[in-house]
Each structure stands twice: as C-alpha cells, then as structure tokens.
Design a protein that fits this description.
Structural class of chain A: alpha+beta
Low-confidence stretches of chain A: none
Helix content of chain A: 25-40%
Number of helices of chain A: 11
Strand content of chain A: 15-25%
Low-confidence stretches of chain B: 556-570
CATH topology of the largest domain in chain B: Rossmann fold
Number of strands of chain A: 16
Strand order of the largest sheet of chain A: 2-1-5-3-4
CATH architecture of the largest domain in chain B: 3-Layer(aba) Sandwich
Number of strands of chain B: 21
Radius of gyration of chain B: 24 Å
Number of domains of chain A: 4
CATH class of the largest domain in chain B: Alpha Beta
Shape of chain A: elongated
CATH topology of the largest domain in chain A: Alpha-Beta Plaits
Largest sheet of chain A: 5 strands, mixed
Number of domains of chain B: 3
Distance between the termini of chain A: 48 Å
Largest interface: A-B, 116 and 151 residues
Oligomer: heterodimer
Distance between the termini of chain B: 43 Å
Largest sheet of chain B: 6 strands, mixed, barrel
Mean pLDDT of chain B: 89
Structural class of chain B: alpha/beta
Helix content of chain B: 25-40%
Chain lengths: 360, 570
C-alpha cells in the first residue's frame, strides 16, 4: 500500500486508484458530472479539479491516478473559485429555470450552480447545439440542456458496446448525434436507455412521459423492486405518480439504482427500462369470470368464482382421483406464491403433480 | 437443473454475475446472451474489453460472436460431440486437474473411457467444427485459471438436454474450475423467478430446497410441518402432464402461464384440453389458455404486490408494491390462500413475509433469509442488494460462489454420456433444421411486451430467418410471406434472408401469437427433466406470396441490418 496526503491527512491507496476513488472512500465530496464508475475516466466536465502540490494547473480527480507521496487538496479557496467560475460559464448557455431544464430527469447542473453560489449573470448565449428528428419511441434528446460531457456516448460504447451515438459538430455546436443523423431505430442502438440514465443534466429523457405530459422525476416516488422479465434479477426504481389513476398510483417511468449497489450495476435493458405499459393496460383482467352453461364467460363476484373453482377442482378429484389434477405454477410469480401452489397440491390433494412453467 | 443437482449437489449458477467481468476465458454455449440476458452480456463485454477470451458455441451467429475470439458454429444438436471431444483433448493432452479429481470427484474413469472414442477429427465430421478449433478451445479452457462456462436453453431444451449438462459438468470437474471466483458452471435463467420457483418446490420431484419427495426423512419432516399425510410418489412433470391432458389429467389449476401459447405440439394439446373436466386459470391477462378455462381469477402483476424473486445467481431480492391493482384484481398469494381455504384448508397467512418464514423453516440452506433481513440489507450502504443462498443462519452473509469448501454433493459426480441425435432430423420431406428462441425486444408469450408501443415499433411482426442459399432453392426473397411446416403443423410469416443461420437451418422467435412457434415444435421431452426439444426439429419452407414492400421489411433481426457483409439478397 502506498501513501499520499489528502487535505492534510495521510491516507493509503492501492495501485491504479484515482484521486477521486481515494477521496470518495474517505467520505470527501468532489463534484462530478461526466464521471461514471463504469467508464474510463474522461476528465471532460472539469468540475472535479483538485490541487496537487508542485503543479501549476489543477488536475481532474476522476482521471488522475494517485502516486505515492502526492500532496492533494480537494477543498480550498482556489478550488471554490474554480467551481464557481466553471458553473457560471456553464450557465451562460444553459436554461436557468427548472421548468425549462427539468421536464423529466433531474438537472444536476442547476443543483451544482446553486450549491457553489455561481453568478448567473455572466451573459447569455443562445444554445447552438444541433438537434435531429428521431421517430424512436423511447429516447428524447434536448440539445439545449446538454453540456456535451459525452457520458452517454461513452456509456453506449464502453458498457452497452453498440456505439450507436456519437459526439458531432465542433465548439459550441458540439452535440450528440448518430451516424448520418439517423433515427436510433435505424442504428445499432438496442434501446437500453443507458444514455438517459447517465445524463447528468436531464438532456436525455424518456420520451413517452414527456409526450403524455406526466410529472417530472422529482415529483415522483421511487419504489425499489425487481424486474419481472429475465433471470438476471435487475433492481430498479418504479417511479410512481401517487395521484395517478385516481389515487391508485401510476408508474411513469423506471430508473436504475446507482452503479455498484445492485447486481445489475446500474444497468438496464430495453425491456427492463421501458416495457411497463402492460401494468396499466386496458386489457388487464379486472373481475373474476366464470363460464356459463352457454359456454360464454361471465363476470362474477370473488365469492362465487372461488366457490366454483373449489367445487370444480374437488369434483375432478372425486370423480378421477388426485392423480387427475395438475398444478401448473409460474416462474413469473413470487417465491411465496410458488410455495403456496406446491403446498396446495401436496397438502390438500396428497399428490406431487405440480410443476412450474419453465422447467429445465 | 436436475443435471446440476445430480453432479454438483445444487441446481443453480455456481458463481455470481458480478464475477463475470474478472473472468479470463468465457465459454458461452447455447446462449444468445445479448438478446436473452442483456445485462449479463454487458458483464461479458466488460470482460472482453479487459482482455478476456470469449468463445461462443452456437449454430447461429449472434451478436456475441461479433466480439468472440472464436465462433464454434456447430450443427444443431451435436453439443455432446463437441463437449466430449473437448474432454477427449483435455484427457489426451493431460490437462486435467489431477488433485481436484482425486480429492473432490468420483467416477472419472468412466468418463475417461467414454470420451476416448470422441476424437476431434471425428467430431469435426459430425459437428462441423474444425478439429483445430476444438483442440484450441479445450486447451484454452483447461489452462486458463479463471475460465467459466455460461449456458441457457440452447443446452437444455433438447430431448437429450440433461446429457448436454452432464457433458459440460464433466469438463468443469476434470479441470477443477469450480469453487473459485469467475469460474464454474453457470446456467443463465430465462425467467425472473425460474430459480425461485424451483427453490420453492414447484417441481414434481422436490419439496422446497431440492429435498426429494421420495426421501422418507424429508417426507416425515413435511408431514409434521403441515400436519397431513403426503405422497411419496414423484409427480408428473409439465411435459408429462401436457401429454396426458384429457386422459389421466382431467383438471388443472394454471397460474401465470399460457400453456396453449407456450407448450410444444400445441394442436395435439388443444385436442386434449377439450376433454378436460375443469380448468381454473389465474392470470393478469386473457390468453390462449382462457379459451379452455372454466373459472378465470384476475391477478395482480409484480408491481402491485409484495414478495421475492430469486435470480440466476441464487440471489433472493424483494419485489415491492408500487401501485394498486386495477379493478378487483388481487395478488396471487391472496387468491391462493382464499382458494385453499375454500377447499378445506385453514391457512391464515397475513403477508408474504409469513409465507417466506414458513418456507425457510424446513430448508436448511435458506434458513437465514427473511424479508426483514432483506429490508435491512437493501437499506444499508454496503454491498449488493439481496442475499444469495446458501444462507443457513441469520448472521450468514450469503454465498457468492458455491462449492468453495468442497462440492456440496460431497463428491462431484462424473457422468459419462454418449451422443444421441435429436429426436427428429431433416429428411426428404422436411429438409431444414428449425430452431426457436427469444429476441431482445420481446419476452416469451409477449402478453407484456406486445402491449408496449415502443417495442412493437422495433419488432412488430413475426419472422423466420432463412439462409440465402436455402431461400434461392425455394424461390424465396427477403420479406416474402412463407409457410413453415413441420409434422405437427404450419404457420405463415415473413422471411428474412440472413447468414446468421447456417445453410440448412432456419430460426424463428417464439413470441408471436399469429405465428406460434409451438405449433411446430416437437413435444418429445428430456428423459430426466421433461423439458421439450424446442431447439431442434425438422421443417420445410415454401413461398406463399411475394411481398411488394419487401425491401423495407426489417423487423429487427440483428444481423440483417448490422452484420458486416451480411446484408444479403443473393
């Protein structure tokens, strides 16, 4: 283990660790925008600059690999001044009002500008990042709130591995685009929505909630749960509008937990992030149904349906024995529900004809 | 699953998803990882980025083959030949882990003898993979310390699926790639709670926790727990139940599964269902099975209830209620309690936590897990959410990878296997191999994903992938409407000309109700698990109608659009 001095204290670190890694472990907060632990450091947004003794320029903590004997400051008057200046510059072409910049995902840049008390009156330059039409149903891009930190582009390349989006243009015109400005549907994009998730300023957004005029993320309640599609068991947050559906609650969108806290490391796929229209779909069964003498299904009460179901199943056993009754359980349902189905088959009917649907 | 219980003593991924990124050699067989398990694919991509060697064995070119060092494009159903030949090389070149074999396994001699005749040269003739590639792969696997095997239904959905699992397990045991991080034998589960449903005992052979129903000691334990006499006779598995529908099977309770859309050889099954006395179906949506149901009970979906799912890596995680169900729909567990009580039980569970507590009480390897503990872990700031079994007591931190202190079964069991061809092979009448699978944009019967406007935009229509050379012979062009026929039935859908499939092979997704793959697939089941052979059967394709807009037809098949040089219509 090597040692360096961090804000006057001696700390140990392992080979290859960055100044940001070490500072975070010490509980020090260094602001970041373009940083993501899943990505190679880029040092693009300049918000994490710190001071190293003997160096004239400040250095990005996210990209700077620690060396033994370094003397590092993460907080002092010069660093404060830098942060204030940086934020003030960012704000010269970034919307100042939350209702403009935060229609969906939170805009951390506004939070940071407020935190460092950045002057908001250093002039105003109309944002000039290019936009493009895209008929894809999921990802909306608002170039006016983009800071071109390329976190989305790097995620698309380094984690999802499809390189569907890219930085395009130069200088103040730099924007996020695709090859030949194609729709994401016509690129290698797999619609994982990782670009939305990693965007620090809310420039990338879920399109459907915007089109539906639903509430911005900060007004939603997050409920951590487990994805119901494949067997990876990704954790995510269902973002719920509690007032939706007459107070029954409405899922507006799905966001992923921070990297490093769940088995999916903050990643989700197209189904995990977007495929939730089914929950509130009109096709949902909302009442018990029983088949009438005429062969047609009729709505009925729970009491009646359960009575009929019980009679029917017990009748099969009476006529043909317990070996004539099969229980098909579900790998889509919970542990607890599967336990109850097998207990029903075994304890009530003394038979083992129970199997879940995805047996291998 | 049964194969793994037999050989290692636990039917689950031996290692954790988070360990994949540190592996140095990844052997992916029968798994279209980037489409069926995109998040696990991301971990594999990360490993490859860091320098790991990826080898993909699959009859079909998939996204993962584009970053693989080698793609072993074997003939469908010849997995045992490939795996036994790899074992042959490892034995012949003395790359075995002698110490591990001696201390931790039994029956090695039988396997050594069994694979003696599976030379790479003979394997080349049968699998279509060059002997050099087989040797190279075997050497890399055996000599890389962090070498892991990853597989899914491409291995198990065969009439000889359990043999395939045994053949893989033999490789693991002879090299000792077990009980260490980033190695092992890892079945990636296809559905959110397959692992959990098995763990919870929804299987004809086992009580919860893989305790056999025909083990008298276990039975006595459960008889005491539940206060009723229990049957010592293993039940019928799903495949057997479906085959005796209307004969032995005269009544069904079906929860959260569309048997009519999902089970193979469905036309035969439908005939049987007409002779069933009574069917209760419990689901969130109407489905094809509803046509036969006498009572339909409306169920809540995952976002409307409390409970747990167990993922592929044995991690138990909480499912939490976020919204109220629509209308009068209720969580499945509540319905089950009410129904059981109507049938004479006296169940009084007040919430899923109580059900969970009852389950773990009789299963030593789950005993330390509870809803309460999961809440505590999820609220904490340390480590990954959830808890991996085995977790025998309340203070146990869970188990990242299995078999660390010796194989759970006691000794790892080598199982000699020999090649048996698929139950149905192409012939004069049905000249093509048909295989089926999942795509990135849909999920199983697609009752959920096809109700999602966006996913439908990317992939709205059924399709079958056909190699250009096979298409030419049949006068089929890209986008044409074709009929796919097997001995069991036929469906009509549009053709994609693609070199993603080998000549002589076709592939279609299983999601589309208007072109049901299970009309076509063979219901012959694996001798041990009953799993049907969805992955191989004989089929034929004929042109129905040339389509005028066929140039624009692109329903999201990966390689048609993106593969280098694969955009073909020649």
């Amino acid at each position: 283990m090597s040692k360096l001095t961090l804000n006057g204290r001696t700390v140990c670190f392992a080979e290859g660790e960055t100044l940001l890694d070490i500072a975070s472990r010490q509980g020090l907060e260094i602001p970041t925008l373009c940083h993501d632990p899943r990505l190679e450091p880029a040092g693009a947004c300049r918000s994490c600059l710190v001071e190293v003794d003997g160096e004239r320029l400040m250095t990005p903590a996210c990209a700077r690999v620690a060396q033994a004997g370094m003397v590092v400051m993460t907080e002092n008057e010069r660093i404060d001044r830098h942060r204030q200046t940086l934020m003030a510059l960012y704000m010269t072409d970034h919307p100042h009002e939350r209702e403009v910049s935060e229609v969906g995902s939170p805009d951390l840049l506004l939070d940071m500008a407020a935190e460092f008390d950045a002057p908001m009156d250093w002039g105003w330059m109309e944002p000039m990042r290019g936009d493009r039409e895209d008929r894809n149903p999921y990802v909306d891009f608002n170039p006016d709130t983009c800071i071109a930190c390329a976190r989305c582009v790097r995620y698309c390349e380094e984690v999802e591995g499809v390189s569907a989006i890219t930085l395009a243009g130069r200088g103040s015109h730099t924007t996020i685009s695709t090859v030949e400005e194609k729709s994401l549907l016509d690129t290698t994009c797999e619609l994982c929505g990782g670009c939305i998730d990693v965007c620090p300023t809310g420039a990338m957004n879920e399109k459907l909630p915007l089109m539906r005029g639903q509430k911005p993320e900060r007004e939603l309640v997050k409920v951590r749960s487990t994805c119901n599609f494949c067997g990876v068991g990704c954790q995510f947050d269902l973002n719920v509008d509690l007032e939706g559906r007459d107070g029954k609650g409405q899922i507006v969108k799905v966001t992923s937990p921070p990297p490093g806290t769940t088995t999916n490391d903050g990643n989700l796929c197209v189904k995990g992030r977007f495929a939730y229209d089914f929950v509130h779909h009109n096709d949902r069964l909302t009442q018990p149904l029983v088949r009438g003498e005429d062969g047609v299904l009729y709505p009925t009460t729970w009491e009646d349906a359960l009575e009929r179901a019980a009679e029917g199943l017990l009748g099969v056993v009476e006529r043909h024995g317990a070996d004539a009754l099969g229980f098909v359980s579900s790998s889509r349902c919970t542990m607890e529900e599967n336990f109850l189905v097998q207990k029903m088959a075994r304890a009530l009917f003394r038979a083992n004809h129970v199997h879940q649907c995805a047996a291998t | 699953m049964a194969g793994l219980v037999e050989t290692f003593g636990a039917g689950a991924m031996t290692n954790s998803i988070g360990e994949i990124r540190d592996a140095d050699f990844l052997f992916v067989i029968g798994s279209n990882t980037s489409e069926a398990h995109p998040i696990i694919a991301m971990e594999m991509k990360r490993a490859v980025r860091k320098g790991a060697t990826l080898v993909v064995a699959d009859p079909r070119a998939i996204w993962m083959t584009s970053i693989a060092k080698k793609h072993l494009q074997l003939n469908p159903g010849t997995d045992v030949w490939l795996l036994n030949a790899m074992a042959h090389v490892i034995v012949a070149e003395d790359l075995i882990n002698r110490e591990f074999i001696e201390n931790q396994t039994e029956n090695f001699k039988q396997v050594k003898e069994a694979v003696a005749s599976y030379t790479p040269e003979k394997a080349e003739q049968i699998t279509g993979i060059s002997a050099d590639d087989i040797r190279w792969t075997a050497r890399q696997y055996a000599t890389t310390e962090k070498a892991g095997i990853y597989y899914t239904l491409g291995i198990t959905e065969h009439a000889h699926g359990t043999d395939n699992v045994y053949a893989l397990a033999n490789l693991v045991l002879m090299t000792g790639h077990l009980g260490k991080p980033s190695t092992g034998m890892n079945p990636l589960r296809g559905q959110n709670n397959v692992q959990g449903a098995n763990d919870a005992g929804a299987t004809p052979m086992f009580f919860p926790g893989y305790q056999r129903v025909d083990d008298p000691e276990v039975r006595v334990k459960y008889e005491k727990s539940w206060g009723v006499p229990l049957s010592p006779v293993p039940g019928l598995n799903l495949n057997e139940m479906m085959k005796t529908v209307g004969e032995q099977m005269r009544g069904f309770f079906v929860m959260g599964e569309d048997i009519v859309l999902s089970e193979p050889n469905v036309l035969e099954l439908e005939k049987g269902l007409n002779n069933v006395d009574f069917i209760v179906m419990q689901d969130a949506f109407m489905n094809e099975t509803a046509r036969f149901a006498d009572v339909i009970l409306p169920a809540a979906v995952f976002a409307e209830k409390e409970g747990t799912f167990t993922n592929s890596e044995r991690r138990i995680q909480r499912v939490r209620k976020a919204v109220e169900p629509p209308g009068e729909a209720l969580p499945d567990w509540e319905i089950l309690v009410m129904l059981a009580n109507k049938m004479g039980a006296n169940w009084s569970y007040k919430d899923p936590a109580e059900v969970y507590a009852e389950m773990v009480k009789d299963v030593p390897q789950f005993a330390g897990i509870s809803h309460e503990k999961l809440e505590k872990i999820d609220a904490g700031e340390e480590g990954i959410a959830g808890l991996q079994w085995p977790c025998p007591d309340a203070d146990h931190p869970g188990t990242k990878f299995l078999h660390e202190d010796g194989i759970l079964r006691g000794k790892g069991l080598f199982m000699p296997v020999h090649y048996i061809p698929p139950a149905e092979l192409p012939d004069e009448d049905y000249g093509l191999f048909l295989s089926t699978g999942r795509t990135l944009y849909h999920y199983n019967a697609a009752t959920q994903t096809r109700r999602e406007s966006g996913l439908d935009a990317k992939q709205s229509e059924a399709f079958v992938e056909l190699h250009p050379s096979d298409a030419r012979k049949r006068g089929v062009h890209h986008g044409d409407m074709v009929e796919v026929t097997t001995r069991r039935g036929s469906v009509q859908l549009r053709a994609i000309l693609s070199r993603q499939v080998r000549p002589g092979c076709i592939w279609m997704p299983l999601h589309f109700a208007e072109a049901r793959a299970n009309v076509l697939t063979n219901d012959v089941g694996d001798a041990v698990t009953g799993t049907a052979e969805y992955k191989v059967c004989a089929a034929e394709v004929r042109l129905v109608e040339s389509m005028p807009d066929n140039e624009a037809f692109f329903p999201g098949s990966y390689y048609y659009e993106k593969g280098p040089g694969l955009h073909v219509d020649d």
